[in-house]
Amino acid sequence: MSPVAVLVGPPGAGKTTVGTLLAERLGVPFADSDALVEATAGRAISDIFLTDGEPVFRALERDAVAGGLADHDGVLALGGGAVMTEAVRDLLDGHPVVFLGVGLAVGVRRVGLSTARPLLAGVNPRATFSALLQERLPVYRSVARHEIATDNVSPDGVVDAVLAALRAEVGDGAR
Ligand SMILES: Nc1ncnc2c1ncn2[C@@H]1O[C@H](COP(=O)(O)OP(=O)(O)OP(=O)(O)O)[C@@H](O)[C@H]1O
Ligand SMILES: O=C(O)C1=C[C@@H](O)[C@@H](O)[C@H](O)C1
Ligand SMILES: [Mg+2]
Which sites bind Mg(2+) (predicted)? Predict the structure, then answer.
């Protein structure tokens, strides 16, 4: 048992939106490490950040990713910062990881000023998002087999691109 696709990328890349559609198209279940953490902790992520701090959240996230990779047979979306944990990067080795990319302008527009994303809830979300992209882009690329740009592409269009990438991979493996 292991996921047919693991989606990584920054907040607003569409991991949850695209992951849900992709799972529907493939007829498999969808899971999201953010939702797994919230279900296990019985609390919202914003509350965990506020009350316990980011390191506690990252440890819960690592455990959720480990569980998802071991038990989940469908599409698994990771929280935007999960790949910054070394243990998560190690766990991803050998899995079909797809990086959904988004540029600064579109990313900021998509996430808006939602307080549901504690890392972006500061005074200057644009600067925070920019720094986050700069730090994380090489990390997303290092764990992913495929990179799909999502700016100006509909969620269904992104699903098409992910499926094409995964199918090309299967074809490559068969040669
Ligand atoms: N390809 C797309 N085109 C237009 N809007 C999109 C696209 N993908 C996602 N969105 C919109 O952007 C917002 C963020 O999407 P979503 O929650 O799926 O991102 P995420 O990658 O899961 O973010 P997070 O890391 O915070 O969980 C949602 O309002 C969603 O409808
Ligand atoms: O980019 C991040 O570090 C985060 C993204 C969200 O998916 C959540 O996992 C949390 O808000 C942290
Ligand atoms: Mg999400």
Answer: 16
CA distances from 43 to 40, 46, 60, 69, 123 (A): 8, 8, 12, 22, 25
State the complex-level ipTM: 0.97
The residue whose two tokens read 């509909």 is 154
Q: How far is it, in rounded angstroms, from Cα 23 to Cα 32?
A: 11
Give me the residue label for tokens 């989606």.
7
pTM above 0.90, yes or no: yes
The 10s digit of each residue's pLDDT in 83-102 is 999 999 999 999 999 999 99
Look-up of token digits 């279940």: 29
Q: Which of 8, 110, 117 to mutate to test the pocket of ligand 1 (most atoms within 8 A of CB)?
A: 110
Known binding residue 101? Answer is no
* pLDDT tens, position by position, 39-55: 999 999 999 999 999 99
